[in-house]
Amino acid sequence: MKEQYFVYVLRSLVAPEKTYVGFSTRPDERLVEHNTFTQTYSSRSAPWERIACIAFARRSVALAFERYLKTPSGKAFLKKHVLEGFES
Question: What are phi and psi of 3, to 5 degrees?
Fold first, then answer.
């Protein structure tokens, strides 16, 4: 089976307005890492829940999408199409 590449979006359970966008080939393990305080940046807002996980066949496409989601336009896309149902 060919390896898949994932872009995932996390939402903080303690600060719901905070999100984290990441890239991994093992998104389930990465969520555990984010929630066990081994990641410096994301540990400040842990625990996290995964609210989106998109699979890609090509690493370059996944990385480009992750970069896009971190831009102002990508953040607006997330807010409109992904986060809308999770807002408190």
Answer: -65, 140
The whole-number average pLDDT for the span 21-50 is: 89
Phi, psi of 61 (to 5 degrees): -70, -40
Reduced DSSP (H G I as helix, E B as strand, rest coil) percent helix, strand, coil of the chain, to 5: 45, 25, 30
C-alpha neighbours within 13 Å on the C-beta side of residue 73: 4
Instruction: Give the mean pLDDT of 2-18.
Output: 94
Q: How far is CA 24 from CA 20, 33, 40, 43, 74, in A?
A: 13, 12, 17, 17, 18
Q: Where are the domains of the chain?
A: 5-86
Per-residue pLDDT band at 88 (split at 50, 70, 90): low
| CATH class of the structural domain 5-86 | alpha beta
